[in-house]
Amino acid sequence: MKLGFILGEVGTGLRRNLSMVVSVVLVTFISLTFVGTAALMQMQITQMKGYWYDKVQVAIYLCGEHNESSNCTEGAVTEGQRGEIESMLGSSAVKPYVDNFEYESKEQALAHFQEQFENSSMSETVTAEQLPESFRVSLVDPEKYQIIKELFSSTDGVDVVVDQRELLEKIFSIINIASFVAIGIAGVMILCAVLLVGTTIRLSAYLRRRETGIMRLVGASKSSLQLPFVLEGIIAALVGALLASGVLWAAVRFLVDEKLAIEYKDTAFISTGEVLIVAPWLILLGVVLAGVSSLVTLRRYLKV
């Protein structure tokens, strides 16, 4: 089996079925782009969880002057109540669960608010009196949040106990849904790619049925007849996979690295390094699907 002959046959097949080959490339490109996007989303979730879960705190908000909560019917928190809450946080019963804690006054809350929303008009309209005092508690084990909530929710002077992880979970759930949607779309597109590869191979073999018939008569083996057709599907899928990898790399490089990572410096984003991890798997997936589809098509539908 001569390499030059096989490559010549592959080139002939690609030229004769150019429109179908381009279709395979595009469908493979789109499907693997969705697969890669879903994988990168999951990496982003994992990275953000690892980064933020170590930083998030439990916020114990104290009653304010105009607080209408059922826990604050007696008015704003008093000095005595504030001191009692601080003593509880430092007590031996709570210490095994609390890594550290700090008190945040109304003025400090306003400063943090203005820093967080410095690019918004809200930072100029909100006053310190509108923001609650709070204790910010870092837990030894964030999963023990319910213990802290039960201990302090009914304490005098406490308005509400909030686990900041709940806010992150809502964001993560949205990203998870988006990644599942991407996987679903990718599955449909991969099926289309597999069917297109099979159709392309069948058409290519049909157009060259005379040549393959002659080759069979002169004793060519089955593998030498099938290999050019299989390579056609693999090459088309490989081009699509490379395009998908390139687009994902460019998106992360220019959108994430050069934009989001600069604008949101306190957030842990994925980088092009994660794309380089995903890309080989996308290429392998494209090649395997195209190869299997080509072999199945040749064995079941074509007599070459």
Characterization of the model:
This protein has 304 residues and is of the alpha+beta class. It has two domains: 3-52 and 169-301, no CATH class; 58-163, Alpha-Beta Plaits (2-Layer Sandwich). 68% of the residues lie in helices and 8% in strands. The protein contains ten helices and four strands, in the order H-H-E-H-E-H-H-E-H-E-H-H-H-H. It has helices at residues 3-16, 18-52, 79-89, 106-116, 122-125, 145-152, 165-207, 209-217, 222-263, 272-301, and strands at 58-62, 98-104, 134-139, 158-163. A four-stranded antiparallel β-sheet has the order 2-3-1-4. The mean pLDDT is 76.
Give a short summary of the structure.
This protein is α+β, with helices and mostly antiparallel strands. 68% of the residues lie in helices and 8% in strands. The protein has helices at 3-16, 18-52, 79-89, 106-116, 122-125, 145-152, 165-207, 209-217, 222-263, 272-301, and strands at residues 58-62, 98-104, 134-139, 158-163.
List keywords for this structure.
304 residues, Alpha-Beta Plaits
Topology:
Layout: H1 3-16, H2 18-52, E1 58-62, H3 79-89, E2 98-104, H4 106-116, H5 122-125, E3 134-139, H6 145-152, E4 158-163, H7 165-207, H8 209-217, H9 222-263, H10 272-301
